Structure formats: C-alpha cells, structure tokens
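Slide 14.
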Amino acid sequence: MTSPATAFPEIGDRSEDLETTAASRLTAEQLSRALRYAKPEEVAVGQVLFDFGDDSGDLVLCGTAHLEALCPSEAPDCEDVFFSYGPGQFAGELGLLTGQRRGLTIRVTTAGTIHRVDAQSLRLLMKQETELSDLFLRTFLARRRLLRLATEQTLRVVGDADSATGMALRTFLARQGVPYSWVPEDSAEGEEIRSATGMAPADLPIALVGRDVLPRVTPGSLSERLNLAYRRTGRGTSDLVVVGAGPAGLAAAVYGASEGLETVLLDAVATGGQAATSARIENYLGFPFGLSGADLAARAAVQALKFGAHIASPCPVVALETNRDTHVLTLVDGTRIRTRAVVIATGAAYRALPVDRWAELTGNGIYYAATDLEAQSVAGRPVVVVGGANSAGQAALHLARHAAGVTLVLRGADLGARMSSYLVDRIVSDPRITVRTGTEVTGLHGDSRLDGVSLTERGGGTLRIPCTGLFCFIGAEPATGWLSHVARDDKGFIPTDRALTPAMLGPSWESLGRAPLPFETSVPGVFAAGDVRTESMKRVAAATGDGASAVRSVHQYLALVARP
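Slide 15: predicted structure.
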C-alpha cells in the first residue's frame, strides 16, 4: 500500500512530464543570478556531498562537476541511481524547503566545481528572485512526485494500516507529503522484516527509515526522525507564530512570510486542519471543478514554504504566556518559543456521539474524515455517515463511489436545513445513498473493529445494520482548552475586537490608549482567526480571509509596539 499522490499546482501527473520538469536546467543568465547566493567549491570523484538521512542542507548548483542522486536499495551495500545532474542543473528537492532529512544520497561522478546555496540564502533567493523561485519550486515538486513513484523503499512502515495507530500514521505521512510504503503486518514481507530486524509483535508498528529501525513508531517520533518537528529559527524571537495549520493558519503563514515577517506555523497533527478531511470542496472561489481539502492544504503549505515560513508538526501547544511585548508559547515537550505576535487558528475538535465504546472503536471503524485514505479502508463494504451539514453530504457522495452502500443518518427531519441544495439534489438522486432523517446512532457492534450499528428512529423503532465505517460529521468544539489568559465566550470560542466586552478587556487596555485591532483578542498582540473565533463563518473561504486579514492587524500591532 503506497501513499496517495498529493496534487500540486502546475506540474502534470504523467511520468514524462514529471521527468522533463525534474531535469530543469538553468540558462546562463539564470545561473549567473543564482550564483549571487552561492559559494563555490571544488569536488572530487566519489565524494559524497550529502548522505541519506542527513539534514536537508544546501541546494547544490552544478558548475563543471557532474553529480548523481542515489536511493537505498533492498540489496545490501547497493544503491539505485535516481537522477543525474550536469552543468546548469541543480541537486535538491522539496525537503530543502520543508526541512525533511535527505531522502537521497548525492555523490560526485565527475570532478569539478559546484556552488552551494545554504538554507538561509535559499530562502532569500526564493523571496527575491521570482523567476528562479518558480523554476526551483516546480522542479522540487516534480522530483518529490517522482520520488514517491520510484523510492517506495525509502520509508516503510509495518503494521495494521486500518488500526487507530495505523490510520494516524498514514494521515500524518499523507498530509506531510512524505513518500512511503505501508507493509501489512500479517503479510509475508511484514513477517520477513520483523524477523530480520528482531522486532516482536509488541514493537509494531515499525518504521524503516533507510537503515534505521523505529519500533512502536508514532507521528511524533517519526516527525522527529524526519526533521519535521519544531526547530529553532535563526533568530531568538520570531515576528509571528501561527498556532493551527488549517485554512486560516495557512493563509496567515503565507501572508506573514510573504510580507517579510519571520513566521512559524505549528499544528498539533498536520497541515490542513478540518479542511484536509473534506473529500471535495466545490464552492471555493477559483476552482469550478472542485478540489479536495488535502490538495488545497498541500498547495497552501508549499506556498508558505516558498516565502520562507517554518512549518512544524505534530507540535501541540500547551500554554501561552505574555511578558510585555513578547509572547511565549510552550510545546508539549517543554520547548518554549518566543514571538512578538501570535495568531490563534486552532479551529475545533470533533464532537463524538454519546454511545458506548466510541473511544475504543475510534480509528478502528469510526472516522472523522472521508478522504481517499479512509475510503480505501472501507472499499466494497457498507458505511454510515452521521451529520446534516455540507461536510456530511460531501463525505456521503465521495464514499458512495467506493463503499458497497452509504446510509446517511441525521437527527433532523429536513436534509436541506443545513446542507447546500446542490448537495441535497445529488444525494437524493444517488441510488447508492440511503437517507434516514429523524434517526440517531444508539449502538456500536463488533469485537476489535466496527462491523455494525444500531439506529433508533424518532418514533422509537430500532434496527441494526451492517457497517464497517462510521463517519461522524456532527460539528466540533473550539480547541481552546490550552488558553488560560485569553478571554473566551460561554462556548469556548474566542471573541475579538468589537465582540470583546469591557469586562474581558480589563484595566490593562486603558494604559494602551487604543481599542483592540481587528481580530485582536483580549491579550494585546494575540489574534484569532478562522473557526476558533466567536461568530466566524464556518467556511473555508471565510477562514482563509480571516487568516490573511489577521496578518494586516499583526503589522499594525508590530508598528505600534516598535514606536518609542
């Protein structure tokens, strides 16, 4: 089972298109401009510039030297040539921007001159040289896609793909765009790997990262190994830290980084937030044929990286402190991040049904997302979708293409009460979907995995139906429990600017001599955007607008505190 391809803008899916883009060559004029950011170095035949698993390091421009990129092979002491680079070409892929460790070994095949562009200089180049930035970005993306197709052995995970732990790992890797292959634990290959590595069943899931073996792997430990966890930026204090990488947070990171702010984006799980769980978004401006939430998040993340934002996940934030004009965020591992401004875009946590065994079966048949990952897990089997809003309707339509049948369950009597009419029309006309209004899920059945549910109708009648996947879309609670000094309303959402009452502001604001800026919370310099904000419109486009607009207020705030 391989990771699904992530759609990126402006590169094709055909192998020949990818190979052409991946082999991009700089013109003499482009190379001359790129060399302003580089340092020359003489290299010898056989010299290893970077080894598999090294920190991403430098972009390497070929002067007179020739290089080759090698990926590990299953055969001992053997490597496969992934790519060759000659004069005018350059060695590097998307990991140079994400900070992921090297997935390839770079070795010299013809002695000569190379030019190294270090990480800081590359970020500067990406900001200042639009033509080169676009060329490098397209090439990096094409190489990442080819790496997905050609190097499944680079990262392998052995375990139960459909378990709660397995689904968490697969979701993390897919959203991060990391090439990997999944080996079922009960397969011949899985048994062979476990025997060769000396791992016991209790050590599953196991991750093989090159030559390293990680037992009982989690998204957190794998993130550390791949260099995706938070690492301090070059400066002691960032200009802006964005907490939450859904549409609002991604937009804030893009606008903050593109406007020159030292920007850090943190998320407790992975980029995309709730939007990444949407199988198809059709009413987002500019995409008449729709796109998945995961694709939208992937495009936005690449955009943020292009402008120099630092993205880290999973990085749960557990506390926020304010000391005069500086804010300190504490991560779950105790790391403290100092920043001049904060945008809170943590969105909301999914609501669960009050049914026995819910926690036990979450991830083992109960899901809060209906992406291709989940759809593959229930292919050819019956499923139930719970909810009456757009997310539930989109999920039902997407799952109907994969499952044996979909039952859409909602407590209300009217399917169109909270769902867009275009979705209602499609659902009603789809013979693969059965709609049950005035109905609730009241029982879960199955041993270690869900295999059926009990449904109770408003009149009192109960029936049991087969179900191997229960997809829950009944709303969410704001993810604000980690905040202690930021005012919240009675539902836990964060009031901003005009929604703040005098009691929420307190006497500290009187000394400032100003009212809160748009999107500013009860704490000066701390802003809120997206679903977490009181009275926000719960739509992807609105969240994106919130994130971008909040950054405008961040600039105003930073200008105010910089005044003598």
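Speaker note: The two ends are 59 Å apart (CA to CA).
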